[in-house]
Amino acid sequence: MILIIDDDIAVRTSLMLLLEQKKYDVFAVATAMEGLDFLRKENVTLIILDLNFSIDTSGKEGMQLLQQIRMKDPQVPVILITGWASIELAVQGMKLGANDFINKPWNNEHLLQSVKTLITLKDQKPGQSSRKQLDKEYEFQSIIAEDKGMLELLEIAGRVSKTDASVLITGESGTGKELIAEAIHQNSLRRNRPFIKVNLGGISTSLFESEMFGHVRGAFTDARTDRTGRFEMANKGTIFLDEIGDLDAGSQVKLLRVLQDRSYEVLGSSRTKTVDVRVICATNKNLAEMVAKGTFREDLLYRINLITLKLPALRERGKDIPLLVDFMISNLRGLYNRPKLEVTPEAMKWLKHLPLPGNIRQLKNMVERSVLVSRTDILDINDFATHVEKQPFSDSKLPEVGAMTLEETEILMIKRALQFHNNRISKAALALGITRSALYRRLDKYNIPYDETSD
Ligand SMILES: Nc1ncnc2c1ncn2[C@@H]1O[C@H](COP(=O)(O)OP(=O)(O)OP(=O)(O)O)[C@@H](O)[C@H]1O
């Protein structure tokens, strides 16, 4: 049963009609008291709450009610309805545990999507599907994963792919964010429509609008012909906004508007265009931290992260490395016509313990290079070892001369290696290029705490 709490009879009626048409059971109340009373007695699957309900437009009462709802039922999904002017209120509401917010006047499709997504996700907790079941239900062939966390992630990705919910994919560089974004599109009802990828990190501020929304001829000096924007190209399909954390403040506002209203203006034209698009964003930055620092808009974050998928780093799913290597080798057998390509068990073991900060991309590059260069089809440790790509490092990253002694630098590097490898001594030693016993000696010498049992 969906519960609507709003004192405006017009809003209640139109929401009820809309949801009933879609065969949802709906109940509407006008006051906070009635709402809480209903929640106590009935099994509510989702709540739609108008934050500005009651004559008090500060939203205080709505916010209080949200807190009370959360105390009674921490799980029930809550969608807030707010006026455009009270976007800050919506952000506060999200912090208090609401799941989504919709601006008035709302777009019916958008609202129904949000309802469908939240109910779909609530129905089933992830973590129940095996790889086999996932493969039966979805098309994830190009994504190699047996790791439990990854399977949970794929299960959620599969389920949300059928909705139009916006998805934020986070994770270190090379962990497969783009691959997941493509898979969501491929498993969605939009699969036969365009999938448009935009690398926001590569678009300059001055070109943002023309690139995203297009321009008409003469809109600015260099605009000699009309240009179709990326949103228009993605119409009816999916737009994948990569590196969203790299967007400057001005472009963030412009993006927020199109994500809120699904409408925009082509540069140099006064006509408003609407767009029907599914939005998937990705970043390797920590957006919550950026919000705290004031470099990323909080309202934009809530607009894009109805569903967040956090991809694990490869070192957190080391058991998947042999599967990934097998998959890569099998592709290369066909590509280079070398059907006998193999990796020795020793090399496989060695690869499993290799520090790979560039994640799957780094592994893939290394395997491919090793195959290309090796004269034999049976690849051993030595064939790979010469191709371990050191991450690009510039000495400008080093502290200023005089800021640190050599000993202090050594201590810092040891601590970083331990932290990176979750205190696993042998892995940290390998990354530092010393033996385990040499690392133990240094840990004792510098009094760095460690856990002997963690290796
Ligand atoms: N689970 C996986 N199975 C097979 N190949 C994978 C998997 N994950 C990633 N890859 C491959 O690794 C490479 C990097 O993946 P992708 O480009 O999706 O990473 P990313 O997280 O988007 O990187 P960046 O943040 O640098 O843009 C691609 O060639 C991709 O096909």
- Ligand names: adenosine-5'-triphosphate
Largest sheet: 5 strands, parallel
What's the multimeric state? single chain
Q: Can you say what the CATH homologous superfamily of the largest domain is? A: P-loop containing nucleotide triphosphate hydrolases
What's the β-strand tally?
16
Helix content: 40-55%
CATH topology of the largest domain: Rossmann fold
Uncertain segments are none
Q: What structural class do you assign from the helix and strand content?
A: alpha/beta
Strand order, main sheet: write it out. Answer: 2-1-3-4-5
Domain Sigma-54 factor interaction: 143-372
GO molecular function, one term: sequence-specific DNA binding
Keywords: ATP-binding, DNA-binding, Nucleotide-binding, Phosphoprotein, Transcription, Transcription regulation
Domain Response regulatory: 1-119
Walk me through the structure:
With 455 residues, the protein is α/β, with parallel strands linked by helices. The chain folds into 4 domains: 2-123, Rossmann fold, CATH 3.40.50.2300; 133-310, P-loop containing nucleotide triphosphate hydrolases (Rossmann fold); 314-385, Helicase, Ruva Protein, domain 3 (Orthogonal Bundle), CATH 1.10.8.60; 402-454, Orthogonal Bundle (Arc Repressor Mutant, subunit A), CATH 1.10.10. 45% of the residues lie in helices and 14% in strands. The chain is built from 20 helices and 16 strands. The strands form 5 sheets. A 5-stranded parallel β-sheet has the order 2-1-3-4-5, with helices on both faces. A 5-stranded parallel β-sheet has the order 7-10-13-6-14. The chain has a two-stranded antiparallel sheet with strand order 8-9. Strand 1 (2-5), helix 1 and strand 2 (26-29) form a beta-alpha-beta unit. Helix 2 (32-41) runs parallel beside helix 3, helix 14 packs across helix 16 (359-373) and helix 19 packs across helix 20 (436-445). The longest helix is centred in the first third of the chain and has 16 residues, at 108-123. The chain is globular and about 75 Å long. The mean pLDDT is 89. Adenosine-5'-triphosphate binds next to helix 8, helix 14 and helix 16. Residues 1-119 form the Response regulatory domain. The modification 4-aspartylphosphate is found at residue 50.
